[in-house]
Batch of 2 targets.
Target 1
Amino acid sequence: MADYAKFLEAGRRAVEDASLVCRQVQRALDQVKAITKDDKSPVTVADYASQAIVAHRLREALGPVVLVGEEGSAFLRDEDNQTYRDATLAAVREVWPEADERTLLDAIDAGAGDPSHASFWTLDPIDGTKGFLRGQQYAVALAYIERGRPVIGVLGCPNLPSSFTDPLDRADSHGCLYFTISGQGLWEVHADKQGAPPKHIHRALREPGDPIRACESVETAHSKQDDTAKILARVGSAGEPVRLDSQCKYAVVARGQADAYLRMPTKKDYVERIWDHAAGELVAHEGGCVVTDIHGRDLDFAHGRGLETNRGIVCAPPDVHGPILGAIKDLGLA
Ligand code: AMP
Ligand code: MG
């Protein structure tokens, strides 16, 4: 059996360092755009740097690993993209000073692991690209999967404030990092390695009949906001859902700041990616939530890079999850 404590330690270190580098790149957004003359380039640089650092840290601590990451190195290897390669190398060296071009590209490609293994890591180096570009919420999401289920989750949310009174659409100066081993509870620390020891997180029970505070994607292409509105009207909502990018939504429900995260399908054939949900699902579960698809099925991570047998997402504490699934069925949305 895997040494979960050792794996978690390695995963935490990896996500902490990747989060630091993402924050640095975000601070230098204008500079990166100027070098590459492209609004998308800061994401590109941070995406590759984040994946390289996570892969490097995991291999350093654990030896060879199976890592299924969202990115590959083909773009950076292209001769025309030397500027991006240089910018990514400079970003990585913040926490990995000995990196060179060869080790950088090799580390990125360590993410080309085969998800048909019985156990593997999966990584979204920057989840919520649009949020990253807007200077709002994004996440570095790493999970370890065993036989189709996440058993370790590390979710770096570099811009997420830990205080519920701070606005969610602005970048916090510390950010939050959540980590968990299945069955051992959920923990929160600052994402910038500063401050207090880990804090145990578990949702408080709701008062029966309290209105439901929901959250959903900012991007209308990722979740059908009209459907969410119809469902919330049925179950008794507290008003407009809070909109934020990335798996930070799972954390926001896990810590009790919202009562539901709904992801209603916008396209018939869209298959959710495993790295978009693995870490977030475990974070929410360990915080006291139920996570299923819109049919009430558990998420099944044993079908390659996609959640082939699932559609959409419903994440909520048990007393909210049931009524939401009921509303989805009654409205004919599943
Ligand atoms: P969010 O920040 O919650 O809107 O989710 C961002 C993620 O949405 C990205 O990582 C994409 O993988 C994913 N995505 C892209 N297209 C779609 C789609 N049509 N439906 C649902 N998710 C999508
Ligand atoms: Mg993503």
Target 2
Amino acid sequence: MISTIKEALRSAATSRDGIRAAVEAIRAYNPLFHWTGVYLLEGSELVLAHEIGRPTPHVRIALDKGICGAAAREKATVVVDDVNADPRYLACSVHTRSEIVVPLLASDGRVLGEIDIDSDRPAAFTLDDRRALEAAAELLASFIESAESETTKAPPSSRDFHDSAGEAR
Ligand code: SME
């Protein structure tokens, strides 16, 4: 998964393409990752950037809500073996039984977003999964951070070009 993500991020034309490719690689890593998505932090909300799986009603999540909000506030991975026993859980699907959320942290510690995975199997996430996802999060965070700084540094004409090309900000 890690080498696939590295390669995909190297060749991604836009940050949106990179995020999409990373979600695909993570989903392909484990058949138990039934819903795999990436949220990006916009102001005080996590906004769904790309996902594979059943449609979710939670396309925007406030930082004080859900397991997603908890991982962003704590800046740490949250693993929930039984979502129905966790009062923080925001339900996406009746089939979901366990969840892992891994924050995407910038080099200065800011939260850029997170990787969120739901499984239909209880306690689906192993320590190996967690380590692999944290490595993926590190790659994706540095990719998003450099895309972000390129957009900030770019002159207005170049920024206009990127916007019209539909690049995620
Ligand atoms: N279950 C999450 C909400 C997002 S869905 O899993 C896609 C939560 O409790 O924050």
